Amino acid sequence: MILVTGGAGFIGANFVLDWLESSDESVLNIDKLTYAGNLGTLKALEHDARLVFERADICDRAAIDTLLAKHQPRAILHFAAESHVDRSIHGPADFVQTNVVGTFTLLEAARMHWIKLPEEQKQAFRFLHVSTDEVFGSLSSTDPQFAETTPYAPNSPYAATKAASDHLVRAYHHTYGLPVLTTNCSNNYGPYQFPEKLIPLMIANALAGEPLPVYGDGQNVRDWLYVGDHCSAIREVLARGDVGETYNVGGWNEKKNLDVVRTVCDLLDELRPKSSGSYRDQITYVKDRPGHDRRYAIDARKLERALGWTPAETFETGIAKTVQWYLDNQQWVDGVASGEYRKWVETNYAQRA
Ligand code: NAD
Ligand code: DAU
């Protein structure tokens, strides 16, 4: 079986769903179930014997050791993290704990597990670390895209902790020979994303008749990748990636935030028209994110050259599917919009007015 950490989160859960759709290899899902973890996303697999869920913190070495010894996974796919930049600005400690200490703990447990494997299994074992393009810092409008060789320059506490985790993963390969792979991916969007992130937040607010809070001038650029394409890239890297290598994953879809929000509004105007006016009328400009990175852009040619991976979705096809999914799955959104979520909305947006 494979072990997935953070499989109740947005990308991890999409990965588990995709994996079990196309493979009969079992999955052990280890997740702490923070505010971002939601087992409801995996409801369709509730009675599927191929999916084993264990609630555990990746910082808990004893728990991870026990689970590795019991389930003997052939690979670890490490998704678990604190993932939201704004939250890292309000409270960086959890990010250091999970992203740095948690990754370190997992690496140590993996190393001790791996070292004892028979030679053939040892050769085949993989530790795949799921990371982000934010480790590379911010680009100007004329800079070339991030390549795997771009020097690290993380700017937010989130990005700094992900960068630290990437360095630890690299060091465990270089020093101990642990067979690691790292992916650095751009902004994901799609089904089951927690509505604190730009696209699901805008859809939820638009439908609720609330303001659509665009930070700063709305001209910051992100590269957008449909989550299913991220999952297919990870499957390729796991299957055929070269040990010790890092792979950038991107959608070739650089968009300004304001354009993304307007696209969401236009799709909603078409699919769920208001009685009068456009959802665009709800757009408001709010105080910027401190240290807000101006532009991210990914050069994903290495992954294409080495493994033949390209994204299946364009931004236009992916965003249309995504908006339709949120319209069809309002119940899921209502389910995650817990008391804790409402508290976050108050903390983050009250001071931006
Ligand atoms: P998410 O916040 O939606 O989910 C994170 C999951 O990890 C949750 O289920 C949570 O309960 C779990 N978790 C958190 N702390 C844990 C701990 N200490 N022990 C065990 N489980 C814990 O995140 P996501 O958006 O799905 O991102 C997944 C990974 O992909 C992260 O490593 C993130 O850095 C990376 N990434 C995300 C994006 C993006 O656009 N969302 C892009 C590139 C890379
Ligand atoms: O680039 C990959 C990263 O993408 C991942 O590593 C992170 O885990 C993921 O959260 C995401 O980070 P961003 O900060 O880019 O995503 P977010 O959805 O928070 O914001 C996207 C852009 O939209 C960013 O420029 C800030 C802006 N924004 C965001 C929110 C929540 C707004 O203008 N208004 C908002 O209310």
Automatic annotation (TrEMBL):
Coiled coil: none
Bilayer-spanning residue ranges: none
SUPFAM superfamilies per the UniProt record, alphabetical: NAD(P)-binding Rossmann-fold domains
Single Gene Ontology BP annotation: nucleotide-sugar metabolic process
UniProt keyword Metal-binding present: no
Keywords in alphabetical order: Lyase, NAD
Cofactor entry: NAD(+)
Taxonomic superkingdom: Bacteria
UniProt-listed Enzyme Commission number(s): 4.2.1.46
PANTHER family on file: DTDP-D-GLUCOSE 4,6-DEHYDRATASE-RELATED
Similarity comment text for this entry: Belongs to the NAD(P)-dependent epimerase/dehydratase family. dTDP-glucose dehydratase subfamily.
Protein name: dTDP-glucose 4,6-dehydratase
Phylogenetic classification of the source organism: Bacteria, Pseudomonadati, Pseudomonadota, Betaproteobacteria, Burkholderiales
